[in-house]
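Figure caption, in words: inputs first, then the predicted bound structure.
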Amino acid sequence: MFIQKHGIFTWFLAIIAIIATTTSFASGQTQRFEFPKVGDYFVLRGDFHMHTINSDGSLTTRDRVEESKELGYDVIAITDHGRTRAYRVAKYVGDQLGLIVIRGHETGIKNGEHYVVLGVDSAYTPIDSHKWAKNRGEDTAFYQDAMKDVVNHGGLIIWAHPHTGLNECTIWGSEQGIIVGVELKNDVVGEGWNTEKSHGTSWYPFAVDWALKYNWAMLACSDAHGKRKKNPAVTLVFAKERSEEGVLEAIRSRRTVAWFEDMLWGPKELLSELMSSIVKATRTPDGKFVLKNLGPVDLDGEVQTNPKKVFYLKPYGETVVESADKAPTVRWLNVWYGLKENLRTSYTVQ
Ligand SMILES: [Zn+2]
Ligand SMILES: [Zn+2]
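Bound structure (zinc ion present):
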């Protein structure tokens, strides 16, 4: 009796285990990350600002890289404060997992701006991190010399969580072509660090205008210290090749889109190319207008008919949109190229 009971119980446990395994396997499978190619470009999911135990983060380098892979990132930079130490192990683990790793660190002006340095060579050593002096002759490195040092070692600079407002150091770095991008969104600063609440989240909306004015790449970064939150910030990179060089070239050429809180932010032309590659339109024999999403982005659209019709197009899904219009125009409600400007796409479908 006992044996039989035990047998049933064992079977029960085994079945539970099978169900659990199957479910987690299935949910792992349904999480898709890939984008179709956009023209000649691979669309890579990047995060260019994060920490490990090598500075004030709580994850080891290996855990950070593995976590990044699980979250679907194609490329990361570990940017510990004043240290590039994580790079060697990150690159080793990244190579095994098929994740591109960029050498970087976080630094900045004494009591001021934070900058993320990316793509420096192995001979580069951070100097006076977070202590760059605004004036020559102070007891720490003059910011202009420190920025030039980054360039001399093949790197570039991104302005991290721009809480200080725009001033001379950033403008100088930008004019020299050293600062090439800005974070519109930083997951870690939350509602603090002079973020503003708009478009349903706390971020740096004014940085969109700066990016347009100064021709900076728009980025969204996790700045994770502990484990990343669900749906962390992503910077989409439009790279000619899947490599460190390819990613850095794309950032230098401002081919990035910030993706956070289900919104896409970027330059109009790039967003246009992206949307025409990931959304395909067809018409059914009975005249219905069908939109198909080939990418992992949740999309909210509004057909510009009278009256206007709002629809949701889920990742890798399709939706039937009622429109008798021969060339319907869709306004994408979560795709932005300016603070008040949604991208619009016209479809000519037979
Ligand atoms: Zn910072
Ligand atoms: Zn940071």
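The longest strand covers residues 329-338.
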